[in-house]
Amino acid sequence: MFSGATTLAAVIGDPVRHSLSPVIHNAAFSACSLDWVYCAFPVARGGAGDALAAMRTLGIAGYSVTMPHKADVAAAVDECTPSAAALGAVNCVINRGGYLIGDNTDGAGFLQGLAADVGFEAAGARCVVFGAGGAARAVIDALGRAGAAEVVVVNRSADAAARAAALPGVAGGVGRVGDASAIAGADLVVNATSLGMHLDRSRGTGPAAELPCDPELVASSAVAVDLVYDPVETPWLQALRSRNIRAFNGLSMLVHQAAGQFEWWTGHAAPVDAMREAVARHLAERPAT
User: What is the pTM of this model?
Assistant: First the structure.
């Protein structure tokens, strides 16, 4: 039941109606008995400044930020945390009496999810990341901050891969697409591309069923993460798991990056189990397409 004292948080983006963030955050507010509500605001490209002005005017406590606004919000807030400044991208904003601070919880969420799933520690690890977009850069930055011995970036655009590998504090390198040497011996292999996303869930196939790399190249001792979480098992994950490789989807990263936002906004410990159960149930109950 909402009241005049209900605190509002929201996700801004375009498109945004498909977002799972309302499911996750409202489950968290409910689990903690907080008088908060979270909704989705479609904000067209170029409208980030207006959305931030509305945040100040209406007293909206927190924003989650998704595409295409992460860079624009980073440039428009009053202050960025070190991780958001390094990436030039903000995925959440807190409103402190009209003073807006931007953060990026994607990288920390990735590491926390990986620790929760398999107890993996990045310090000293040799890592390979496929992709050089926003999610990939957040993962690469987090691995560098956590002390990874090497992060090899593989991307169709070598220039984009080189820029991602050159993030401050990252012992980065650039690998060629299809080059087995970039994968052999890696402790952690991450798909941060969209390959495998938007499959036909009724058949488990689709035009995006291409793999980021040959699963046979991944060492049996490695940990693999596919940041795609819809579908919950991509063809790449299926192939890796058939070889008994420890392979995980992006659901834990999704939940833990949201948990970081929740804790920042509310000051309460995030009910991670309730958040994960809510989104997993939502994904499982959706009709097949």
Answer: 0.91
The question of whether 242 is a catalytic residue gets the answer: no
Count of Cβ atoms closer than 10 Å to residue 211 Cβ:
17
Q: Which fold has domain 107-249?
A: Rossmann fold (3.40.50)
Per the residue annotation, which of 25, 69, 70, 137 is the catalytic one?
A: 70
Q: Where are the domains of the chain?
A: 7-104+253-285, 107-249
Digit-coded pLDDT (tens) for 12-61: 999 999 899 999 999 999 999 999 999 999 999 999 999 999 999 999 99
The domains spanning 7-104+253-285 and 107-249 adopt the same CATH topology: yes
pLDDT tens track for 184-215: 889 999 999 987 775 544 444 444 457 899 99
Letter string b/e over residues 167-181, b meaning 16 or more CB atoms within 10 A of that residue's CB? beebebbbbeeeeee
CATH 3.40.50.10860 fits 7-104+253-285, yes or no: yes
Can you say whether the dihedral through the CA atoms of 195, 200, 206, 209 is positive or negative? positive
Query: β-pairing, 7-13 with 188-191?
Result: unpaired
Judged by phi (left if over 0) then psi (alpha if -120 to 50, else beta), residue 184 lies in beta
Give helix 251-266 / helix 272-285 axis angle, nearest 10°: 130
- Alpha-carbon Rg for the chain in angstroms: 19
Dump pLDDT digits (tens) for 121-145: 999 999 999 999 999 999 999 999 9
